[in-house]
Amino acid sequence: MCASTFSIIAYDHGAAEWGVAVQSKFLAIGALTPWAQVGVGAIATQAVINVSYGSNGLLLLERGLTPEEVVDRLTNSDPDRDNRQLGVIDRDGNAACFTGSACFDWAGHHRGAGYAALGNTLVSAATLAAMVERYEDGAGEPLPRRLVESLAAAQDAGGDRRGQQAGAVLTVSAGAGYGGSDVRVDLRVDDHPRPIEELRRLLDLHELYFGETPPEQWLELDDELAAEVREHLDRLGYAGGELKADLEAWARVENFEERLSVNERIDPVILAQLRSTSDKVEGEAAR
User: Fold this and answer.
1) Where are the domains of the chain?
2) Strands (E), the chain
3) Which end of the chain is less packed: N or C, by CB atoms within 10 Å?
4) Does the reported pTM lie above 0.90?
């Protein structure tokens, strides 16, 4: 199973978030290459993929082995090690990599502070260099966005010399995902002519539905704004009575429950979506 690929693994100290992003000319690469666990680390397994490197590597990290020890333990016992490529990052952002001698050119890896980038069957070393440069320039960005934009830079510099097909981004952080899960982002593009562009689109949608607006930007539902919200909800068929209950009903149907408030305020993202949906219904009715 040869998944010629480029990927990046990282740890964001400020957000306590671990992540992996990957692109490959290989169907559904997101089901195989990226692995991550809160408080443990992240792993990318590629080239001739050994899927057990992911699960076993996380177990070894959880037991306290260093990334270097994990790489050695996994590859030294593998008779096909020369065809493997592996990146490991631990709970503190320490990284180790392995590129087998039989991986197709161009193949190699790079370790930096809190991240590692690796790739094989690349157009040239410029692919990896561009991925590294973009990641380092992206300090302060949310980790999922930073990882995907690093893939985009790598693709712009040449990418996989066979072309594109699939991509994925996976990040984990304690309680940061839907419903308080540890999976903050898990997006996969299994088969697409421009998978990184599609990942960007999906990431935009993820931010729309599950992002967090700073509390100071939320709007008070004063009489004027409450009247406007009431009008939009009535137009959309949510006219059951109490404003907050109707707003919550609409938001849950539209999958915006993560942006609901427990007080008398409204997320401006929710308000913008309510206005847009209402205006669309009004426009269709006027035709």
Assistant:
1) 2-210, 216-286
2) 2-3, 5-12, 17-24, 34-37, 41-48, 84-90, 95-99, 108-112, 115-119, 166-172, 183-189, 219-220, 265-266
3) C
4) yes
